[in-house]
Amino acid sequence: PPHSAALDLWRVLRSRGGADEADASSSDGAKVAAGEGEGEDEEGDAATRTTAAAATAAATGDPPAPYDFDLSTEDNHRASSSSSSSSSSSSPSPSYFTAEFAAVRSGLDYSYHAHYATSRQRMQDDIVRSMLERTSVRDAEGNLCPGGTPEDPWIVFTAGAMGAGKTHTIRHLHATGRFPLESFVSVDPDEVRRHLPEFAEYVRRSPLTAGDLTRKEAGYVAEILAGAALRDGRNVLVDGSLRDRAWYARHFEELRGEYPRVRIAILHVTAPREAVFERAEVRSRTTGRVVPR
């Protein structure tokens, strides 16, 4: 029957048994209600820039400052070299990071990521904390697990192209009692970027570049979220494509080494090519983020 592999995974989750890896496939797709958004002309740009800067300042605690929407959020919120006390390709000293997720931050790759200003780190911490607090894990008898942590946690990776229907499939499996979505910390860079205070203005100015100009910071916060959830022993759901097979093979081995109790599953969602592009186009009219073909 449809979703039988996913149903098996659900049974394994409930019984805390089964193999280390599971693979489920579905061709279900999401139909997103379309919305219309119109940009404003250049006449109001100066006022909008000031308003956006003030909104960012309110979210981060910084005084209002000019904000350059031609640069990424990463470039706008880089720490000065003197405050990070390190080169651009090495990790800052542990004392540089905000306390709550310092251990996770210090383990990330700073040859790829930027060093963020302390005030921006606090805003990122708020995003991570809010996403961690949304889970509630129950055991096979329906009792809440203390601290939202199961005895044998799962990390589930979704695989498939954007527009394949991954989100729709997960929600469908949850609605039909086949996947306990509320028991998982969802790690989705697209969801993270919607929490960035400047994202709506990036979309208004240029839907084609909004995703790219928020990609690095959204990915950085998603890495912190995943690391914090795994550190706490929580179930984790990672949204992605699994396109880079070699990288993920190494990543799975690293996970097994660092978190030996964690079980790994892959939920592979497929759809016809034209349906993928059609859904991505519909989504762009709702979110403002355009995915080039």
UniProtKB/TrEMBL annotation:
Pfam families: Zeta_toxin. It comes from Trieres chinensis. Gene3D superfamilies: P-loop containing nucleotide triphosphate hydrolases. SUPFAM superfamilies: P-loop containing nucleoside triphosphate hydrolases (SSF52540). Residues 151-292 form the Zeta toxin domain. GO terms for molecular function: ATP binding; kinase activity. The keyword ATP-binding applies. Residues 24-35, 47-60, 80-95 have a biased composition (Low complexity). Keywords: ATP-binding, Nucleotide-binding. Residues 17-95 are annotated as: Disordered. This is Zeta toxin domain-containing protein.
